[in-house]
Amino acid sequence: SNKGDLVIADNNIASSSMVIDIQSEGVYLKRINIENNTINCPISDYLSFGIYIDVSGISNNADIIITNNNMIGDLSDFVRIYFEYINNITVIFENNNINGNRYIPEGGDGFSLSTFGGNNNSYIFLNNNINVFGTALYFYQDMINNTNVILANNNLTGDYEGICFDMYFVENLTMLLTNNYIMATNLGVDFE
Fold first, then answer.
1. Considering only CA atoms, which of 118, 59, 64, 121 is closest in space to residue 88?
2. CA distances (Å), 64 to each of 2, 60, 72, 106, 185, in order?
3. Which pTM was predicted?
4. What is the DSSP letter of 16?
């Protein structure tokens, strides 16, 4: 329903492709809450996701909360979120455990967040443990303004990169990185 809530909690979910797939175009969600789930993708090919959220139809002033999930397997991205031209969004990613089993060509990222357009958004990442063969945290931001990013107390290991910030036409960005453990073969923290 318009401006409703979607809650996915306390499940044990396994799939070889999309484990949780939320595409909310035309359904204006106010809150997405994914918590206390075990997500497993034992064997996978290209384009497989533990949690995939394309929230082109989410409301302004909405929350996306992903907490206390355990994700393991062979995935292109364990969590991928995409939205565009949405304002005042808060994304909270907290107390999640992600473990990738093997190398996936052109993928294997722990958390991927892509935003095109939008103002006054907040991204909060706290107390996560991510160990993958790609990039632990990947941010793509284009044409955004007044964005707040907090990364604290995370344990991030990426065989390629720990954290990648891929940003274009970004204004008034506030970023706090504190008390994180970051380990990567290529780049620990990459700002592009």
1. 121
2. 16, 12, 21, 26, 31
3. 0.90
4. S
